[in-house]
Amino acid sequence: MSALFEELDYAPTPIGAISLRRRHILALKTDVFEILLGEEHLMSSLFTASEIALADKGLAALSGEALDVLVGGLGLGYTAQAVLAHESVADLTVIDLLEPVIRWHREGLVPMKTELADDPRCRLVQGDFFTMAASKEGFDADRPGRCYDAILIDIDHTPDRLLHGGSKGFYTPDGLSALSSFLKPGGVVGLWSDEAPDEEITALLGTAFDEAWAEPVVFENPLQDGRPFTQAVYLGRKARD
């Protein structure tokens, strides 16, 4: 049996101290990896259904091959890993604000070790996703204005519960319209939420995209006797013409 608790890394960042820790849960006989910002839990390896669904549902809304995908938010890497599981994906760029998070993947401290860092289709880029989304240059310094088939975002808890103030202007008709300029015709934007579908968020996406809808993601919490929880993936499609 592994040690019951281990802090794998702790580092200051511009938005507060971030830590990566591993806990062994005796009742489940498993290790759980967690990312915390201060005392706030950002992600756990025990609950990954909706992060994976963000990738699977977003890519299911597309057709074609050699897809070019952008993910905002790296975390423990489950959305990015699920994107790369699709053979239709030719290239994946993952943007994360926090250097330590990217370093954890390069050093193999996370559950999937260096899988993402080693995949030739995947680039891990440190940067402010929301600042890039509001710029004219976009997300690729080598190819200003580069467009993607899918942009999948897993950063804030919800548009009303922000990780930090830098994303406030993003969840507006103007902010989402600016993002749409980096989507190819017919491209899809996906937005993760740790709450059940909300009609107001779907309506907000509808102000910037030709189609908008929400997909509920239901999973069971093994720490609460299998109690079901519902989170959401919101999707918006840019007009094909």
UniProtKB/TrEMBL annotation:
Gene3D superfamilies: Vaccinia Virus protein VP39 (3.40.50.150). Keywords: Polyamine biosynthesis. Coiled coil: none annotated. InterPro entries: SAM-dependent_MTases_sf. Pfam families: Spermine_synth (PF01564). One of its GO terms (biological process) is polyamine biosynthetic process. The keyword Nucleus does not apply. This is Spermidine synthase. It comes from Roseibium aggregatum.
